[in-house]
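Quick log. Single chain, no ligands specified.
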Amino acid sequence: MNKTDPPPNGIAIIDKPAGWTSHDVVAKSRGILGTRKVGHSGTLDPDATGVLVLGVGKSTRLLKYLTGLSKRYTGQIVLGVETSTLDAAGEVTATHDMAGITLEQVEAAAQKFIGAIEQIPPMVSAIKIGGRRLHEIAREGGEVERPPRPVTVYHFEIAATEDPLIFSCDVSCSSGTYIRTLAADVGTALGGGAHLTGLRRLAVGSFTIDEAHPLEKPVLLSAATALRDFSSVTVSEEIAQAVAHGKVLDLDLLGVNGDGPWGVLNTEGELLAVYEPHKGRAKPSVVLVG
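-> predicted structure:
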């Protein structure tokens, strides 16, 4: 990037390789993109692969809207073996003879976890309890009580593989759902135990693996693209000036309705700001111009 070039701004859809933490991807991308302003919209396990959405430049401020988008994953459920991390990276903690379990039985067990459910986060997760991330406590050999968290599983499809004790899964779910916990819970529901392997994230909202690029060759999409899963409105030059000054606007004047948030674009399709409802009006939560 030349000194006269504008700083990079937008989002990049990365196909995260296995063995990289999400932070590793951010750190590497800072060097590739030539800016310190890089962040991600939601952690993907180091052993997992697939969609990781990066915010770059001013668009890092938009990541908070992407974090809550629904997700889609695939993976394999390994019956008969429980591990300390609920996936293949952990130590084996228990084994069960689950020979003879049929596809129909696994499908029936998976059906129990479709809809609104509660999950206890695994100790290796990145959420914080008491100011510390669970995986940090786990690395020290500790364990703390974790309150269950409400999540929603929209779709949980099971398929057989060549190995009679391994079943592939395809899951669509709300943000915050732990697929390794689903796998372990399916094993328990079948009267034994299980763990997850081969986790791959296929989508974050409408951002799919089909538009993901290798870590070494990121492609920047516009800031407006970051909000494509939300409503947007194109405004006149006069309103654009008010938006640039961060003014609170009447809903009718801005031309929006519903619950928001709303992306506000100029006539050239550039994202100017993000507005949210406020006391019957609309106020800016992120302003990218001005």
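The chain is about 20% helix and 35% strand.
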